[in-house]
Design a protein that fits this description.
Helices cover 61% and strands 3% of the residues. The chain is mostly helical. The chain has a single domain, classed as Four Helix Bundle (Hemerythrin (Met), subunit A), CATH 1.20.120.450. The chain has a two-stranded antiparallel sheet with strand order 1-2.
């Protein structure tokens, strides 16, 4: 990475690194391991990636297109986005996540950092704020994923 890259490129680079890290947290896990609940909340590794798909769609679809979560087929609340259905598999959740990330890149490709997104429930927000928020959220969830993965892998022994 060059330190003289435009700020927007730096945002995109860091967000993509965290997107990859979160997806990689599922590498080599069985379906049971990916669904394993190790904390009292709904947080599982597979649930984290499913939630990150929700995050991508809220911040880069709902916020840009102004379509409602109902129109987008999204849960109403972030907590609901962790719920795994019987048809959620490592393969299907990763596919949805990668598709959502690609759609996010396309949706923001022509936007500048000061362009205002009007479809979020918080009100109008500049893309810069949204990118920082998503980066913060992905970094937080990558930390969760690191700990959960470490616990899962250590239980194999």
């Amino acid at each position: 990475m060059s330190f003289d890259q435009p700020l927007r490129d730096q945002f995109d680079l860091f967000i993509d690194e965290h997107r990859r890290a979160l997806a990689d947290s599922l590498d080599g896990l069985t379906e049971e391991e990916a669904r394993r609940s190790l904390v009292p909340s709904r947080t599982t590794l597979l649930g984290l990636v499913k939630h990150a798909t929700f995050v991508e769609r809220v911040w880069f679809d709902e916020a840009i297109t102004c379509r409602s979560r109902a129109e987008l087929g999204l849960p109403e609340t972030p907590d609901e986005s962790f719920v795994l259905g019987d048809d959620d598999t490592v393969t299907s959740v990763l596919r949805e996540y990668r598709d959502a990330c690609a759609a996010s890149r396309r949706a923001t490709a022509d936007l500048g950092l000061d362009d205002v997104l009007r479809g979020n429930r918080r009100g109008p927000l500049p893309l810069r704020w949204v990118l920082l928020h998503v980066l913060r959220e992905l970094a937080q969830h990558c930390g969760h994923a690191d700990i959960l993965r470490e616990q899962i892998l250590s239980s194999r022994n």
